[in-house]
Write a structure and sequence with these properties.
By secondary structure, the chain is an all-alpha fold. The chain has one domain. 78% of the residues lie in helices and 0% in strands. It is built from 17 helices and no strands.
């Protein structure tokens, strides 16, 4: 699969959106859309790596849906409709009033504006998204994995993970500390955070349930069983590619994960522009690149050749989850959020390259396949 074929849609979308921005808004709108696109890609690159670990377990039909229907949900649903819906619920406005308010614009520090109301809802947004991502991070590392990147840290975490459901216990403990110390709206933050944890647990459990009904002897869920997930990614014996209802819940998980990653981008975008259409266009094009990057990673087998990328992405997810929680009470610049994720990914990539050079890239990939398949 060529790069042009994989990234054809986002490249075309970029050209159309930038041309429209310049035509209707001039050079300023053109530059803002470009900045927002870069912001979305930088904040969500680790999202693409994690998505690839799950997308590789879905059959070709569901992978196509991820690129088509999934992009529509990501661009229109999460970058445009969801913020409108959120403001309507928190401010108790009907859809027409919310749209009128959004079209009026206004600064985020000006009471009564759309940007202001969305900023007021930020503690709930950050709590839900932060707890979803933190639970995902904990569920990944609190398991015994054959491949480790930061072994000195991942090894003790896997020992702690021998306790059943410890990921949920630790996540809820972090939520209590954040709610008590970072905000005066502890009740609201607690409710949103519990919903974030519950969403992750529910989607994972439903995925396992329908994998079992589909004939999988040892269901993997999202990250329910590390060995089975890894075997399925390597093409060895294990759960293999799923379809039907099991694939549907993996698809649903990917959409919720994308939403969690998009929260900070949507909120941060209002510091750059108050025009919802410019924000939707810039972040939407960025989301298209993330989707295409996910498919590219799956089709090229990048995660098998560069063995630490998946781990680096999950460390980035854990960091982003904590940053979102810190953002409940303290403003964290978007550049910090983006740099943290990119740093983990780059470090994991470099570590993978060095590992491959020591043993040869093909030998390293074969070693990973053998380890993940459970062979000596």
């Amino acid at each position: 699969m060529t790069l042009l074929k994989t990234f054809g849609w986002p490249l075309s979308g970029t050209a159309v959106v930038l041309a429209a921005a310049f035509l209707f808004g001039g050079l300023k709108a053109f530059l803002i859309v470009g900045i927002l696109c870069v912001l979305e890609v930088s904040l969500s690159f680790d999202n693409a790596v994690v998505n690839a670990t799950v997308l590789g377990r879905m059959n070709a039909r569901w992978q196509r849906l991820f690129l088509t229907l999934g992009i529509l949900i990501a661009v229109v649903g999460m970058r445009l409709v969801f913020p409108l819906l959120l403001v309507g619920i928190t401010a108790r406005l009907n859809p027409v009033e919310v749209i009128q308010l959004a079209l009026k614009g206004g600064e985020a520090d000006q009471p009564g504006t759309y940007a202001y109301l969305l900023h007021q809802a930020h503690p709930s947004i950050a709590s839900f998204g932060g707890m979803f991502l933190l639970t995902l991070f904990l569920d990944f590392f609190l398991q015994d994995r054959r491949v480790r990147w930061l072994g000195w840290l991942e090894r003790p975490l896997s020992r702690i993970g021998r306790l059943d459901q410890v990921a949920v216990v630790v996540a809820l403990a972090v939520l209590v500390v954040a709610a008590v110390t970072l905000t005066d709206e502890a009740g609201t933050v607690m409710i949103a955070g519990v919903l974030g944890v519950g969403t992750y647990v529910l989607v994972n459990a439903l995925g396992e349930l329908f994998e079992t009904e589909g004939g999988a002897e040892e269901p993997a869920g999202i990250h329910g069983d590390a060995a089975n997930v890894e075997r399925s990614l390597s093409g060895g014996n294990g759960v293999g590619q799923v379809a039907g209802r099991a694939a549907f819940f993996l698809f649903l998980y990917l959409e919720v994960l994308d939403a969690s990653f998009s929260f900070d981008g949507v909120i941060g975008a209002f510091a750059i522009s108050q025009n919802i259409f410019i924000i939707g266009a810039g972040l939407g094009v960025g989301a298209m690149y993330i989707r295409s990057m996910t498919v590219y990673l799956v089709r090229k087998g990048t995660l098998q050749s560069y063995v630490y990328l998946e781990h680096g992405a999950h460390w980035a997810i854990g960091a982003l989850g904590l940053i979102l929680l810190i953002g409940i009470g303290h403003e964290v610049p978007e550049i910090v959020t983006g740099l943290v994720g990119v740093t983990f990914i780059v470090a994991a990539f470099i570590s993978s390259v060095l590992r491959n050079r020591r043993g040869g890239r093909s030998a390293a990939a074969q070693e990973r396949r053998e380890m993940l398949a459970g062979r000596p």
